[in-house]
Amino acid sequence: MPVKKAHPEADDSTAAEAGVGSVADDDSDLAERESRWNHALVGSGLGVWDHNYRLDRKYYSQTWKTMRGMAPDEEAAGDYDAWLALVHPDDRDFVVHAIDRQNAGDPDFQIFEYRERHRDGHWMWIDCRGACVEWDESGVPTRIVGTDTDITARKEAEDTLSRLSRRLDLALEISRIGVFEADIENDTVEWDERLIAIYGLKGASRPIASDIWAKSLHPDDRERVLGLSDRSVESGSDFQQEYRIIRGDGAERVIRARSAFFVDGNGHRKLIGANWDVTEEVALRNELQRAKDQAEAHNRELEAAKESIERLALHDYLTSLPNRRYLDKMLDERSAECRAKGLGLAILHIDLDRFKQINDTLGHRAGDAMLQHAASVLRNSVRAADFVARIGGDEFVILCTVDPASKKIASLAERIIRELRKPVRYEGHDCRFGASIGIAVDSGPTLDAKQMLLDADIALYRAKGLGRNRFEFFSASDRRDVISAKHLADEILIGLERNEFVPFYQLQFDARTLDVVGVETLARWQHPVHGLLAPDRFLDIAEDLDVVSTIDALILERAIADRRAWIKDGLSVPKISVNVSARRLADPDLGKKLRALKIAPGTFAFELLESISLDDCDEAVAANLKKLRKLGIDIQIDDFGTGHASIVSLLRLSPKTLKIDRELIRLLPQSAEQRKLVGSIIDIGRSLNILVIAEGVETSDHIRILEELDCDTLQGYALARPMPAMQIPSFIRAGSWRHGQVAARALQTQLRRELRSRSAK
């Protein structure tokens, strides 16, 4: 190590020193000792330096030069300033001060460390050890001898260890881990500061008493934890546990502990371990567990709710039977099962008869009770493997897998009908209803349960049409009829769009004079393929489609237009009657629609079927009848004598006209009883100031007899057939109904009346 020159005026004549020790004495023993020490120094890796200020000579050993990257035989200049420039800038001031103090003989600076740049450019750490070995008369150091050691590797190791130590301390601090070491044999324990802080024992004496830990344990955990600890010590197994403590400040905390045994260099058995304060973690874990438990409970509730919703979605709330949605699912499953096993599938479509009357008379609660009773009967009538569903209203469906050749389905249907016909007691009333059943049975690889359900519905329709309280099996002809009806229904709807429904008119005549007194408007369908169709060809299907009211409205509008055309042509028809359906009569907007047509009062009459004019008309019908009278539209009762209208209903409805049904007129010439009955009806009408029209007048005998019975008006083929509006004027002007036998009989009748009148005078 180059150093400052202590005495520039030092004596140059002093013998040079080479190595450690004096070279003046060339005694062989001394030389041997010097050689031995030199070899020892070289082997030790120490770089020797010797600064003799008195002789102004500086010596640097080969090791000293080699550690700095110099060649062993390279001359070291020993220039202080040049050497100082190689010292690390952060160490430079310290080194200058340290050399000054070392030269001054300060024992505190005999050893110091600093960084110096190696010849290849990297920094190396030097451990510098030097001391004064000679002084002048004034006590000033004249010779400094020392060694330099390259401690770079050691410093790097220390730095690495320091970094690791800092990391460990930081990790322990961040994780709030306290560490302890226990000497099992001596029963002593060393706790670090963090562990003392964790247990709230700040200020406690060191080392910690061995029983402090046991006393800190929570009373509820102490026995368990100490037992585990003792067993761990006995077996030498690792200890890992979580427990509660009561801190020195009284706070309750949760500790997680881990420890392991080892044997130290002295052969002592020791235990080292770590404790974590996991109170917040445990609280969070417990909270998460509570949240998980709550979530699982909520999930169970949701699952139960889902099952309940699914059950509600698949079952009828009233009867608890499967519903239509469930049925659709089972149709697919049973179809696949029957196809796979070669079984037959039977579908029974059940509709309760007279159920509406129970609802209407006893209320919906009674109806609900009957539906529940019907569901119970169906469940008790089938096998456990059969499927029963309520698909809406008073309709039920049963699915049965059967042997294709089995005839037990008919027996099942008979049993169901028999059980459902039995009276059911409800709040003091005997409720009676029945059931109609349509049955479809099929098997084989092409089995289609959904099509079978349609077939069963067709069979049910047929059972109802044949009188109800019975069952019918589906047949291919039934399907053809349904397809035909469907085709006709489509054609009706198209016909309405194309205005194919037109009015025909049948004239009505005074029974005494045969003068035209009115005309009945009849609906006809001008079919593009089948020609002119009467209502018997389309009325039932139109009612199913709920378009009869639409047809009635169209015919009325056409009749109003035709009347205007006749008037324009100079022909006046006293009154035009049109049919009105029950649904149209119940239309709350009927009055508004009729006012919009601006019908002249007294020119039109609405014909009501006798089945409409019941004793108990609902409020809507009664209100519309009152509106008709205000609009000047007369009311006629059609087909009187074939329904169940009472005298009371006639008095209440006060119709302008009664029309005797053609069935009562047809047998007048052959039956005295029929003549008596028709005469009674005419007498009733007259007594109530109601005009009477006879329909179905087809012969001259009919004309004669009805005239004798004092009937008011005649209508029938004997006088005029139904005809389109354009033929009415020419027909009336021609007067053809007055010609021939008809006219003669009319004349005879008139003469007889005149003779009777003269005799009476």
The tally of strands reads 27
In DSSP terms, counting alpha (H) and pi (I) runs of 4 or more, how many helices? 26
The proportion of residues in beta strands is 15-25%
- The CATH architecture designation of the largest domain is Alpha-Beta Barrel
What are the segments in which pLDDT stays under 50 over at least 5 consecutive residues? 5-25
Global mean pLDDT:
85
Spatial separation of the terminal alpha carbons:
180 Å
Using the alpha-carbon principal axes, give the shape.
rod-shaped
| Largest sheet data | 8 strands, mixed, barrel
What is the domain total for the residues?
4
CATH fold name of the largest domain, please? TIM Barrel
CATH class of the largest domain: Alpha Beta
CATH H-level superfamily of the largest domain:
EAL domain
Our Rg estimate from Cα atoms comes to 63 Å
Strand order of the largest sheet: 18-19-21-22-23-24-25-26
Please give the share of residues in helix. Answer: 40-55%
Short description:
This protein has 761 residues and is α+β, with helices and mostly antiparallel strands. The protein is built from 26 helices and 27 strands. Helix 14 links the parallel strand 16 and strand 17 (471-473).
